[in-house]
Design goal:
6-stranded mixed beta sheet; about 40% helix
């Protein structure tokens, strides 16, 4: 059993039209109106970014939010920035993506058995959504997880995604273990029919410093493949 593409498409259309958070609406549009020199002349998406991937995915990747000049520009999760360069190269090595690069929404990239979502769908100033902005957006991810009926593993990129995933699962009626599971790279916890798997975020802060290496990221996706059966 898997989600009907039309159900996900309807949810994605609802996400794209959302204007619940005035601060984020203002910020995403301001960035598009005055982009950095390297992106001058490009047409920005400047709307909430929907999930992306295979409706039959057994692995779901959870991020924080779109990057101001990444997905906020291209309209596709993790596309057009350095974090995405790392993520999609790893997904390609693991057999989840048909190509290692993600530069635009029409570049031919396809995911198999993987789906990418995020706790927040609009680029936040300084990559810091408020608690209210998180809570406004969280129902979208909860709905996606419900529609992705074949999902078995949620890979949380960072502590914020880990917390958001637990909140979404709780909203869907899952019982969260007590004490609340703590995030860590490689941490695992069973929540209902799903396994939540922690991974350091693919941000430059982690990849440039060596906190997250390619072998570490590859090991996470190998474990996700193993857990998803």
């Amino acid at each position: 059993m898997s989600a009907k593409p039309s159900q996900l498409e309807s949810l994605q259309a609802e996400i794209v039209s959302c204007r619940r958070c005035p601060r984020l609406v203002e910020w995403r549009e301001a960035v598009a109106a005055d982009p950095p020199k390297r992106h001058r002349g490009e047409r920005y998406w400047a709307r909430p970014v929907p999930g992306f991937g295979d409706p039959r995915a057994r692995m779901v990747i959870v991020g924080l939010a779109p990057a101001a000049n990444g997905a906020n520009r291209t309209g596709r999760m993790f596309t057009g920035d350095r974090s995405g360069d790392w993520l999609f190269a790893a997904l390609h090595r693991a057999g989840y993506a048909n190509q290692p690069d993600a530069v635009s929404a029409d570049d031919g990239l396809r995911l198999g058995d993987a789906y990418i979502t995020a706790v927040n769908r609009c680029a936040p100033p300084a990559n810091r959504p408020t608690t209210a902005e998180r809570d406004n957006c969280l129902p979208y991810m909860a709905a996606e997880i419900e529609l992705l009926a074949r999902a078995r593993v949620l890979v949380a990129l960072g502590a914020y995604a880990w917390d958001g995933a637990l909140r979404a699962l709780r909203a869907n009626g899952a019982e969260i273990p007590r004490p609340k599971p703590r995030f860590g790279h490689g941490a695992e916890v069973e929540v209902g029919d799903l396994v939540l798997l922690g991974c350091f975020h693919v941000s430059q802060q982690n990849t440039f410093t060596g906190r997250l290496t390619e072998p570490m990221l590859d090991a996470v996706f190998a474990r996700a493949r193993e857990l998803s059966g």
